Amino acid sequence: MKFTVNQKELLNNLLIVNKAVSNKNIQPLLSGIYLEAKEDNKLIIRGTDMELGIESEVSAFVEESGKIVLPSKYFVEIVRKLPMMDLELSTEENSQIKIIYGSSEIKLNYFEGSEYPSIHDFEGECVLKIKGDDLVNAISLSQVVVSTDMSRPIFTGILLEIKNDKLNFVSSDTHRLCYTYIENIEKNVDRWESIVPAKSLKEVAYIIHEDEEIEIHITSNRILFKSRNIKVTSRLIEGKFVNYEQVIPKEFSTDINIIKKSLLDSLERAFVLTRDEIKSKLNTVKFNIKEKVLIISSRASEVGDIYEEIPIYLQGKEIELGFNGKYLIEILRNIDGEEISINLNDPQSPGIIKGNQGNEKFIYLILPVRLQ
Amino acid sequence: MKFTVNQKELLNNLLIVNKAVSNKNIQPLLSGIYLEAKEDNKLIIRGTDMELGIESEVSAFVEESGKIVLPSKYFVEIVRKLPMMDLELSTEENSQIKIIYGSSEIKLNYFEGSEYPSIHDFEGECVLKIKGDDLVNAISLSQVVVSTDMSRPIFTGILLEIKNDKLNFVSSDTHRLCYTYIENIEKNVDRWESIVPAKSLKEVAYIIHEDEEIEIHITSNRILFKSRNIKVTSRLIEGKFVNYEQVIPKEFSTDINIIKKSLLDSLERAFVLTRDEIKSKLNTVKFNIKEKVLIISSRASEVGDIYEEIPIYLQGKEIELGFNGKYLIEILRNIDGEEISINLNDPQSPGIIKGNQGNEKFIYLILPVRLQ
After folding, report:
1. pLDDT at residue A357 in the model
2. Which of A67, A210, B76, B172 could form a disulfide with A133 if both were Cys (CB 3.0 to 4.6 A apart)?
3. Measured between CA atoms, how close is A296 to chain B, in angstroms?
């Protein structure tokens, strides 16, 4: 194997692929990065921990094709520190690859590439095409209310559901739920449901180019995202997602409009006082919704009290109820737009948060907590 | 106690003072920040862990003088999150302070201020005046080769020595030594020696304004740095520093000039290969100094090899020797200037690194390691 590649282009793609590599993997081959130099002057770079897999394609001048696996923790750092110039890589006897830059050279021990798992190429039973920025947006909205508790794996994933000509994204950590969707997608099936690990989708959102069209292939146990030169694949989570349509109320007796930043700032101050409260762990903040003002208050006996007034526009009934401030903060931090709506029914029923500029396609559902 | 102070000015000074506060302190009073509102419209803010102490003075509109101690972990975060406006602080009954901002308010529990330790005001036996930027520069050069091993406390400090009309700064971690000095200082004694904890000096360098003149007061067990509105005090380390003048060689048989960045880049690449070598822990890099070129090479049997050529200007003898690459990297990263000189005698004797633009006032001494 012998090829020449630009340092910067190699590095950029190694950093992407490396996100799927775990240095803690017990299989040495999986803590490495797979390189395949092809005769059509393409270099294929792959990494996987078997759950997530990333493949990238880079232009290279290939004199001799071949495939090897290099230890990622050394190879990525070495390339990062090499000068920005063309690098010549060639395999030598005794299982070393030689990297030549100017009059200097580095030799790295490699593994044979033939044993490396191939998980990137399959045809989907369900095939979709969507815009990159729509996908990134839906993932980042859903990501916030995902659970990390592996004992209930369904809640560590995001439901991707095709229904009524929409691609719905639903996630929940059992305290909160997020619903968002993408319209006008190209697809080959009318109905489909898969639960994708949120961790994998986070990497997808980080890696893909927002201005490209993304092709998605789904089978019963894997999903593949394909853009021009990058492929990301992930295993799916088995199981049945909660029936989110039953959970989201359709009508509300209280509807307020509020400047998002005012509410977020106020909740963050309240959280400083309550974050160490061990007893309740609820970071309870009291909402007292009046005609023109939302009164936010909280008390942490060891630390102190907070009392804030925020102007609002109210339609419907005045109401007093409690929320976990931390849960609200995480949602608000993740929402664009200046104003939001909060819709409520009573102090025991879930409320929803949505944008109120008319074109926001998301709903966060949040459960009130009992006031002492 | 009742006063009004600008949020931004209060926050900036709290963040400075907070550097001396340890939230792990078993004395609750010392995990707090001392506030004293004085009748001359000054607010004094203090923090200390008894080793390091920082005091700052802020303008405030004081209606009622007084002193209290507030829990730093809550107070600093609350002020950070308050809107940028004037804040009115007033003590209430039941040991709470009320912070009013607009139509909102926060109440925090406080401790009485009368018990808070006073460590900032003393006259020095030795009194110096030096320029802030000279002090910052000397501290940052010395800082690199300080030890963190508390079993030999002297090497965790930096020697401040007045001798021959200079203020010398000397530090060592027993593998390396740094010598630098400040000339033309105002002082009231001809000779003086103190060992100041490096940790304290690091904070001093971070806090003081480089364009101010700094007054330094030293006694047998404490040092005080005074600028216009900030005072930093530290305990001193007891003991006698090594005789550095005996250790630094005066003559050398090999002298090379080299572009600092070329050497640093090369050492950093070599370090990626050797950083996990458990056997030696020396990160050994071989220097082969020839007429016009320095050949740097290193081998890590589990990972690979590196061979680099760097152009140099040599005066004196060719030589081959080994260094701990990590130790050199730390020194080089900390030096300004494009070119450096390295002076050597033989593979067993210490070499020195210095700037070669003629106006650099520092010497780093470094010990070679044996080549296998």
Report:
1. 75
2. A210
3. 9
pLDDT at A371: 85
Rounded Cα gap, residues B289 and B25, in angstroms: 52
The pLDDT of residue A281 is above 70 = no
What does the pLDDT read at residue B347?
96
Assigned token pair, B45:
């803010």
Q: Which one-letter DSSP state was computed for residue A369?
A: B
As a whole number, the mean pLDDT across chain A is 94
At the fourth CATH level, which superfamily is domain A249-366?
DNA Polymerase III, subunit A, domain 2 (3.10.150.10)
> Which is more confident, A360 or B5?
B5
Q: Which CATH superfamily is domain A2-112 in?
A: DNA Polymerase III, subunit A, domain 2 (3.10.150.10)
Percentage above 70 pLDDT, chain A? 98
User: Averaged over B65-78, what is the pLDDT?
Assistant: 96
Chain B residues at the A interface, defined by Cβ less than 8 Å, are: 71, 74, 77-78, 81-83, 96, 103-109, 265-266, 268-269, 272-273, 302-309
The CATH class, in words, for B126-246 is: alpha beta
Sheet containing B362-366: give its strands across.
B192-197, B157-163, B166-172, B176-183, B362-366, B351-355, B339-344, B254-259, B313-316
Contacts of A32 in chain B (CB under 8 A): none
SS3 content of chain B, % helix, strand, coil (to 5): 20, 45, 35
B248-366 — its CATH code? Answer: 3.10.150.10
Instruction: State pLDDT tens for residues B213-248.
Output: 999 999 999 999 999 999 999 999 999 999 999 999
Find out whether A252 and A343 touch, Cβ atoms under 8 Å.
Answer: yes
